[in-house]
Design a protein that fits this description.
It contains 5 helices and 5 strands. It is α+β, with helices and mostly antiparallel strands and 103 residues long. The chain has 2 domains: 64 residues, no CATH class; 36 residues, no CATH class.
Length: 103
């Protein structure tokens, strides 16, 4: 799930030369509390595991896969969901497996 702020949505819709209302209809899902998330997994802007809007990507994408943030063990489902598509996650999990099996 990729959270999107108003500012981030404005910035990317401007980059895509797309009116914000059209951008939201095409790419954003809005919760009743006003929270916005990308409406597709994997992200619509991924092509061959590369971000096609890299310079305009959202903060959640900049942090991805967030292995450096506390609470890694609470994000195992998300980590494993992206195992086959994210080289960083793949390499970290494979290294962890080696370390666990060598102990």
């Amino acid at each position: 799930m990729i959270n999107v702020s108003e500012t981030e949505a404005d910035r990317l819709s401007d980059h895509l030369n797309q009116p914000r209302i059209d951008f939201d209809k095409q790419y954003i899902e809005k919760g009743s509390n006003g929270m916005m998330i990308m409406n597709a997994v994997p992200c619509t802007f991924l092509n061959e595991n590369k971000c096609t809007v890299y310079e305009y990507r959202f903060e959640g994408c900049r942090e991805f896969p967030a292995m450096h943030l506390p609470g890694f063990s609470k994000r195992l489902f998300t980590t494993l969901m992206h195992y086959g598509r994210c080289p960083i996650i793949f390499n970290i999990v494979e290294e962890m497996k080696k370390q666990i099996l060598d102990v």
